[in-house]
Amino acid sequence: MIKQIITAVLLVLGLASFVGLGVWQLQRLDWKQGVLAEIEAQIAGEAVPLPAEPDPEADRYQPVEISGAMGEGELHVLVSSRDYGAGFRIIAPFTTGDGRRIMVDRGFVLNEAKDTARTTGEMRLEGNLHWPDERDSYTPEDDPEGNWWYARDVEKMARALGTDPVLVIARTRTDPQVRPMPVTTEGIPNDHLEYAMTWFLMAVTWVGMTGFALWRIRRRTHQAET
Q1: Burial class (CB in 10 A: 0-12, 13-18, 19+), 188
Q2: Neighbours of 61 (CB within 10 A)
Q3: What are the angstrom distances between the C-alpha of 120 and each of 66, 97, 104?
Q4: pTM
């Protein structure tokens, strides 16, 4: 009898815990979808002039319009495009009309176009300010001498190009061969639904396992009594 009570209590406690965690993940999902909707609205907003001192937090994803001269001496960041395969993001220096040197992520080129000459000089473009967080413990070390970069590290790229640590991700084409890769929310993880389903499946598994344990206890008790 005591074993049955203990098992039943464990059943209820485990079920409550797993279901509670699943419900919490659903609440997190709702919250995350709201955040993503706000970011998408900000990304697609009306472009404004480049702020005097862009803030990595307050101005992240801010649409801007800049005019000036696209420079040479670009950096090549290895990337894989879902639509086109392996290639490189082209990061180039850009001097604005008021003399500020910033960086522009011009977009994507295939491997064979890595060293192709590109359009430079005067131009006007729209894009979004961004400070990507792409480097982790598994990211290989960059090779500046070979011009192979594995993450868009704004501070590090700015030092290499001699610019301010400001990056604009172009959403207008700056060269016939370069496909813009505008800022989107695709890279922002949102796995809360999967987590919720995992907890709910664990709840079902827990009920099955403890239910089976209760059945075996009752069966043995019945056999002992007879």
Answers
A1: exposed
A2: 20
A3: 15, 15, 12
A4: 0.74
